[in-house]
Write a structure and sequence with these properties.
Layout: H1 2-14, H2 21-39, H3 51-85
Length: 88
Amino acid sequence: MLTVAWWLRWCLGHGRRLPHVWKCAAAVLLLQALALLELLDFPPLLWVLDAHALWHIGTIPLNVLFYSFLMDDSLYLLKANSDLLKVD
């Protein structure tokens, strides 16, 4: 919970000037929602899909979403640092 609180605090602090922060907040919140599948176990559906399998399936798009956030943030930082290093 401490990690979730830290990430959401970071997102709130940077959300106004960075348009891609919503991806980070969404990934963090959706991952916490998926954690409920680990806690609220249920019998397998069709003898194949249990809560743990659905948790693994649900984390696939979250990796793509968080990677997209990391790429956008890295490009922002590269542009910000290159603007600082320019000599006129």
